[in-house]
Amino acid sequence: MVLMDIFARFSKAVLLPGFVVIALFAGVPANAQQTATPTKDVKTDLKSSLTDLSSLYQKEVDRLEKQQQQSKELYNDGLISRVEFEKGETALADARAKVEQVTKEIAAANQPVPELAILSDSTASSAAVWSTGNARIDGLIRYYGKQYGVDPFLIYCTMSQESGFTSGATSPKGAMGLMQLMPGTAARYGVTNPYDVGQSIMGGTRYLKDLLKMFNGRVDLALAGYNAGEGAVMKYGNNIPPYEETRNYVKLILKRYAIKKPTS
What we know:
There is one protein chain. By secondary structure, this protein is mainly alpha-helical. Among the domains are: about 55-110; about 135-260, Lysozyme. The chain is about 60% helix and about 0% strand. Strands 1-2 form a two-stranded antiparallel ribbon. Helix 3 (about 35-75) packs antiparallel against helix 11.
């Protein structure tokens, strides 16, 4: 009966979208149970950062809606081209998609967190499991992470924030694919098709590697460089630039990365 109860508890492991949570064994020593508290604190901070980011994205939607209403009037009067008007429509649709994605992540973050603990067996260790939902993409993340010396879980967390694991994603600023490479960055790393999952992961991983090297292994600065460009980080004295979106971006990825760093 004890074994059956342990198995039943273990089988309830849950993987929430965008970050990892684990339900582990019962019968944990009191000192091991204390590891659950930091996870709850991190999750509270995560929800706060997601809410801030949602507000930021909604402001952008409101701005683009007003801008597009003006563009519609200009288009109807023949003062701007159809191409320019449709470009604005695409930017608005992308901004709305960001709000929708963050709303889903907030809903996921509000789900109850199973108790985090450590196996009572002193020879065992707990290992979190992550997945994009696509075995090929998971394999490529691990392959290029190993090849370029970048933690696969960091690549996973970055990809989650960048594209939500959508290979055809395109941002209003022109970033493309799973790792949201800008045209210049894609060219720098020999990526001829940013929407190809293999090329995107390769290029994004190499960029992360170079950023980590450039900023002496500082993950926060590497992420800031990935979002705002390494030039912006250097411009502000090798600090995270004072851009609201960049600061939220770094906070969100770091919190996910810190929730539970799994073995790959």
